[in-house]
Every structure is written in C-alpha cells, then in structure tokens.
Amino acid sequence: MDFSVVAVAREDDSPVEEPLRVAVAADRLGYREVWAGEGPTWDSFVLATAIGRATERVALTAGPVPVSVRDAYTVARGAASVGALTGRPVGVALGTSSKRVVEGVHGRPRVRPAAVLEESAAAVRALLHGVEGEPVVPGSDFRRRLAPPGGPLTVAAFGDRAIGTAAAHADRMLLDVVSPEQVRALRARLDAAAARLGRTPPALAAWLPAAVDPGPESLAQVLGSIAGYLTVPGYREVFAEAGFSKAVELAASGADRGTLVRALPPEAATTLGLVGDLATVRARVADYAEAGLDEIALVPATAGDPAGERTLTALGPA
C-alpha cells in the first residue's frame, strides 16, 4: 500500500495555518506526496506553492479543483506555475464538487457536471503534457514559457460517468471517505470501464480520515468529517447497514453537524476511515488493500494532535 498525505481536505474548525504544519510534518517523515485540497478557505495552487516553499522534497498535487469553476487552461497554468516556483513535480486532481460549493460559494452554475468533468479531463491531460515553446492552447499566438508540471492527472469519481472519465484520461482515480466494501465495488467498475476502452486501469486512491490512538478531540473531528455523508446515496446505506440508522434518519430530517456528531457513536469513525490503536489501523489498511485500493491518502486528525504528528509518525515510511 502506498501512502500520501492530505494537507487540507474539507472545511472544519482547525486553524487556517494547520495545512502547512501537516505538510511540513509529512515531508520530514518521508511521505512522497502531499495533496493541497481546494475549498472555501484555501486556493489549492496558492497552498501548494506555500507547501513547496516550506518543505524540501515532497511531490505536490493540487485539488481536486471543481471543473465548473476553473477552465482547463487555468488549471494547467496553475500547476505549471506551482512547479516553476517550487521546482517540484506537481499533479492536478479534478472533481465536480457540489452544488453547495459551486453555486453557493462561487456563484457559478453546476450544470452537466459529468460532461464538464469529461471535457476538462481530456483538455487538462493534453495541456499537462505540452512542451515549452508551443502555443499555450491550439491556435493561440501565446507561447508556453513554463515547463509542464510533471505530475499525475487524478480524477475524483464515484458515479459511472465519472469513473468512465477516470478510466479514459486519468493516471489515478480518487475516492473520498469510503469503506473497503465500497472500494471493492468501485475497483470492479473502474477495471471494467478501462477494459472497455482497451486501457490499463489507472491507480486507485482514497482520501481516508486517520487517527491513531485518538483522544476525544481527534475522534470528534473524524466524526465531523464523515457526518456530511449521512445523506449521500451510496453512503447512507453503508451507515445504516453498520447499525447507525438513527444518525441517518437525523441527517435526513435536516439535523445540524453538531447534532449528527453527537448521534454517531465512536465506532462510526471506523466505518469509513482508519481510527483506533496501531494494530487496528494496520488491519484496516490490509482490508483496503485486499479490496483493491492502491493508495491511501491520509487525512490526519489534528484536533488534539497538532499537524497530525502522532498519526503520521505511526503510519510513516519505515
């Protein structure tokens, strides 16, 4: 199993500078790659640049960036800019994000998201592999002055059309907060999509919340990170089958995040993540590997464990 580290995944109450501390710890501990996620607080390319300047060797991936907000050239230019300023390989992750973010934060319409993802992935892949001196886009009078960023193209996927896009264009497909059972099913769908295209399947990675020997604060943070999935099709069934129907029903009724966290028992944190003592977490990693996952991108709990130091140290490269 390959491990990488997510410096920032989704919005929570952690200090805004915490992603830099997580990235510095990951670099010091020998992890090969850090993800700079994008959300209402952080621009992923700015954060990736700051991480690159604060660390020594770790490779960088920006995103997933929402394809309804950034055009393909802007994405490729952002990655090339990060690479030029940091001297590191820079990858890009693309995703459709949510209506809450695209329309509620950016004020952009989120229409035909699967089609836009397909169009963006094809265009970004071509732009990521261009060469200096050629037109920035076909037919343009402007010439490339920055080297290609050199990192992989990742596509965040869950539905069939997004999985098809990943199979067609990506070096890696990304899942977010999934159980081993979901991994097994999604791995099969990815392999089948790639086979139909006559293409080798891309690697399969997942962002997973992680907390080794968590205290109460870390556990609450992990539960908060998964509470938003209680109403999502494909996830609510996982929670219901695991015995957390009450929380699923509360979420369906519109209960707020705090109420949902209080309704979820500690065991819920292990349903979609790596939580517990080191032996428990390692056994869970083995479950994900057996299900077909190639890479775990650790989203370390930092509440009660600044920079996720305890978790990252326990799971770090030998």
Tell me, briefly, the overall form: globular
Number of helices: 13
Query: Mind telling me the C-alpha Rg?
Result: 19 Å
**Major β-sheet strand ordering:** 1-2-3-4-5-6-7-9
Reported by name, the CATH topology is: TIM Barrel
What order do the SSEs take from the amino end to the carboxyl end, as H and E?
EHEHEHEHHEHEHEHHHHEHEH
Helical percentage = 40-55%
CA distance, first residue to last residue: 13 Å
Question: Uncertain regions: pLDDT < 50 for 5+ in a row?
Answer: none
Overall tally of structural domains: 1
What percent of residues are in strands?
A: 15-25%
What does the largest sheet look like? 8 strands, parallel, barrel
Overall pLDDT confidence? 92
Helix/strand structural class: alpha/beta
- The fourth-level CATH homologous superfamily is Luciferase-like domain
CATH architecture title? Alpha-Beta Barrel
Count of distinct strands: 9
CATH class: Alpha Beta
Structure description:
- The chain is globular.
- The protein has 13 helices and nine strands.
- Helix 8 crosses helix 11.
- Strand 3, helix 3 and strand 4 form a beta-alpha-beta unit.
- It has an eight-stranded parallel β-barrel, surrounded by eight helices.
- The chain has one domain: Alpha-Beta Barrel (TIM Barrel).
- The two termini are 13 Å apart.
- The protein has 318 residues and is an alpha/beta fold.
